[in-house]
Structures are given as C-alpha cells and as structure tokens.
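Hi team,

Below is the intake form for Cupin-like domain-containing protein from Parvularcula lutaonensis. Please confirm the fields before the structure is written into the shared record.

FORM ID: S-0412
PROTEIN: Cupin-like domain-containing protein
ORGANISM: Parvularcula lutaonensis
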Amino acid sequence: MSVLAGFPSRGLPSGTPVEEIGARPGAPVPEELIDRQTPAILRGFVEDWPVVKAGRDGADALRDYLLRFENGAVVPVSVGSSGLKGRLFYREDFSGPNADRGNTKIGEALRRIALHGQETDPPLIYLASATIDQVLPGFRRENDVDFAGYEPLASIWIGTRTRIAAHNDLPLNLACVAAGRRTFTLFPPDQLPNLYIGPIENTPAGRPISLVDFADPDLERFPRFAEAMKHAQVAELEPGDALFIPSMWWHHVEATEGFNVLVNYWWRTVPRFLGTPQDVLNHAMLTIRDLPQAEKDVWRGIFDHYVFGNSDETAAHIPEHARGMLAPIDEASARRIRAFLLNQLNR
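The structure came back. Fields below:
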C-alpha cells in the first residue's frame, strides 16, 4: 500500500484523480499528447509487453526475463538500509544523498533486487535512469512504444520500494509501468512556491527536489504544502499502465512493490540545438537576481521584449542579413551563438 494513503487523515486534500484517455495497446502514442498541458493516464497501454507478463509471474520470472538482455554493463546503483523506508533524499546536513552510491554490473543489481525485494522490510536498492539500449540491448525489440516520428530517450528504472521526491523535468515524459505498482502525485508548474524546492545545484539526482516528506509532511515547517495539495493530481498505476507528464509538471513517485520496473520516454517537440532553459536560469541567478530592484525591473522588460513577448516586429527594423540572434534560430546559428556565449563567459 502507498504510504501516501494517509494524507486525508492528516487533514490534507488527497488530490484529484488524473484523467484517463483512450489508448490501445500497441498503438502509436496518441497525437493529442503532444500539445496536452495536463497529465493523462493511458490505462493498459503497454500491457502486451513481455516484461509486464514476466512481472506478473513473480520476482524470479521478472529477473530471469531481464537477464536475457544483460550484457555486463556497469550501472550506478543507490543502496540504503530499510530504515530509509525507500526515501531517496539528503543526509541531515545536506552534504550529499542519504543513500550510498556505487557501481555494479546490471545483472548483479537485478539479482539483489529480486532477492531482497521479497523481504518484509526490504533495503533500498535503486537503479535510476539507465539508457535501455546501452544496458539491456535488445529489450526494446520486445518492449517499446511507437512515437511516430519522434526519437525519445528511453530509460529504465529498477528497484525495491522507493519514494522519489517531487521534481520536474523539461522534456515531455511517458512513464510506463512494466512491473510493480506506482503512485504519482503531480502538481502544475505554478505550485513551485508551495512545494519548498531545495538547492539548485546540490541535488540527490540531478533535478531540484521538494524538501517535503510526502509520507509525513511537516506543516509547521512547510505550511504552504497544504495549498499545493489542493492542486494535486494523483495517478495510481498498475503493471501495463502508462502516464503522460507534461513538461515541467512536478511529480512525486512512489514504487510500492518489492521489485519495480519503470520504462520512461523523454522527448521534446523543439530541436535539440535550442538547448535547455535551465542554463539560462542558472546564469540569471549569477547575473540578475542580486541586482538592485530598479535594475531587475529593467531586465524584466528586456526579457519580455526579446524573449517572452518576441514577435515578428521585434527585429523588423533590422536588415535580415544583420539580425544575428534576433533572427529565427537554426542549427548553424545556434552553434555561432554558443561560441559567442563561451567567449563572453571566458573573458
């Protein structure tokens, strides 16, 4: 059972169910997801995957199925005691993650997860975001989703019971439950102030996370979390289900079984050469955030003019051949802009 089931008894809203949309197993990803701005459950979308069927036959059958594709790849694994109750977080002093990290062959990780996951109070063993084609070559020939023209990054997440703090991701995300059960608690991007996000650069897994323990929220320390839960959407997923997560939606993920496998696909609808807005935010922290308020107001107007409110009129008065980065960006101009930025940063 999900530890989040106790939310209502703590006086917190339990969240509204994520909307379900029609999806036929084996069909391409529905086109409506590309422009969709809210999460959606695709119930049974990957239920015909062989890995899903192996998982239903038990931990040993699931392990043996995955070992068919094992190639000796070494993968990073997080390991912690049962006392962590599956929660991947910080140490008390924020000096690093609360779980130990090391490397092992994926076959050994699978054997340990299958063995210890069956214990009543299992330790935390977690293999996160491994590129499938690198660590389990051939897996996607039997278990994959048709993205009809897009080329997503396909990753696999395998572990015992885990609780992953609320975080967000830039790409669109299709998360497919291959084994075990998962509870996703999702929040729209505008709930950032109510989720009490931790450090930007010092993170347990690469993305800033909420400091709220969803299993035992401290409302004295994090009082606005109660407001966040008024906007929460919850997805209870079974093996074979998939969940679409729009760009930048916050999501807390809880895997509730002893042996859990998730396959996810990240993709963007814009060219890769455009880079990531996170780099802009990080640089703005350095260059704009601590300016006097009057100067920040000026830069807010500049950003509105050139970035958020950009239109054809922004550079219409400049000859086309002289517009530089004010012109529409293609791969060649993106390379020139990066070279310009690197030169400026290295001065």
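SUMMARY LINE: The chain has two domains: 3-267, 272-345.

Thanks, M.
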